[in-house]
Amino acid sequence: MKRLPVGIQTFRKLIDGNYLYVDKTNYIHKLIVQGSVYFFSRPRRFGKSLLISTLNEIFEGEKELFKDLWIYKADYAWEKYPVIRIDFSKSKARNSDELINYIVYQLDKTAQLYGISLEQTQYDIKFDELLTKLSGINKVVVLIDEYDKLIIDNIENKELAVELREILKGFYTIIKACDEYIRFVLLTGVSKFSKAGVFSGVNNLEDISMDARYSSLLGITQEEMEGSFKEYIDQFAESEGNSNSELIEKITYWYDDFCFSSRCKKVFNPFSLLVLFKKLSFGNYWFESATPSFLIKLIKEKDLDLSRLDGVKVDESAFSSYEIENLKVVPILFQTGYLTITGYDKERMEYTLAYPNFEVK
């Protein structure tokens, strides 16, 4: 029985340690071959960092790590590319200077890794220089994890949040300016700030957050759970004195029904599933580990009656207009995983949202 990778976000560690991995490489292959510059948002603890780590290994040509997975036998050349990888969740920046220093540090660290000397000191020009010089090796891959973490952490201080947003906007604008040097870009986060905000200079960015083709890229489908976790289901059902089907029904009630597009397979919360099978006990694992404090404060400020949100209808445009200066609670609740899609009216371009499962409700 493979080990449960609770808290493990590094693909190599997961494979080398014989941890359970639900194979998503068919979706990842599609990402790699069908496009080049992506944005993808999902709630916390849904596997974004592991996705970034997996892409990192693929673009570094580490084929043998994938020998038991779908992509190993796929039509893919395993060409090696230089990778710039920045994880903003590791930054504790409390002001704009500290954010700039963190970006500069990450760029210098990458340059050192590839034996490159950087002369520029300004963070955005340094990024341009690094992309240009790395392209002498091969086209460059840029992987950005939790792009919005520092903005969200400081969202209650709107002046500071706007300052941080403007720095990040200047940084990401270089991606478009250096398009000729780039092979692939993925930016992940929880929130989807409008293109007029953080991504105003990146007009070639494809947002796949609500794209049905990638709705199961993260999260665990019913089929994946019953297949990959079968031994754990057998063990848990026996300890509970239930049949497998009775246990699966209970697990579905607690942790399933996340849906991120107008037509998609529902998925289980992966973090809750992993902790469930580790502890063999039901609990509010994701809620207790992932609830942003600003969200609780915002709900209190708006004096929101949460019982009235089950079945709330929202115009499609609400999901692309998330602004620091004008926070709207319902789209934020969707992006952070507390509401999910239960219906879509194509003529009205209107979504119906509700609580996904018992844990969240």
Describe the structure.
The chain is α/β, with parallel strands linked by helices and 361 residues long. The protein folds into three domains: 11-214, 3-Layer(aba) Sandwich (Rossmann fold); 222-286, no CATH class; 289-354, no CATH class. 40% of the residues lie in helices and 11% in strands. It contains 14 helices and eight strands. It has helices spanning 11-16, 25-34, 48-59, 96-113, 123-134, 149-153, 158-177, 222-228, 230-240, 244-255, 270-279, 285-290, 293-301, 329-335, and strands at 37-41, 83-87, 140-145, 182-189, 206-207, 312-315, 340-345, 350-354. Helix 4 (96-113) packs parallel to helix 5 (123-134) and helix 5 (123-134) packs parallel to helix 7. The two termini are 32 Å apart.
Give me the secondary-structure topology.
Layout lengths: L10 H6 L8 H10 L2 E5 L6 H12 L23 E5 L8 H18 L9 H12 L5 E6 L3 H5 L4 H20 L4 E8 L16 E2 L14 H7 L1 H11 L3 H12 L14 H10 L5 H6 L2 H9 L10 E4 L13 H7 L4 E6 L4 E5 L7
Parallel strand pairs: 1-4, 1-5, 2-3, 3-4
Antiparallel strand pairs: 6-8, 7-8
Structural class: alpha/beta
Instruction: Identify the CATH class of the largest domain.
Output: Alpha Beta
What are the secondary-structure elements, in order, as H or E? Answer: HHEHEHHEHHEEHHHHHHEHEE
Largest sheet: 5 strands, parallel
Low-confidence stretches: none
What percentage of residues falls in helices of 4 or more residues?
A: 40-55%
The best one-word shape is: globular
Key attributes of the depicted protein:
361 residues, three-stranded antiparallel beta sheet, 40% helix, alpha/beta, five-stranded parallel beta sheet, single chain, globular, Rossmann fold
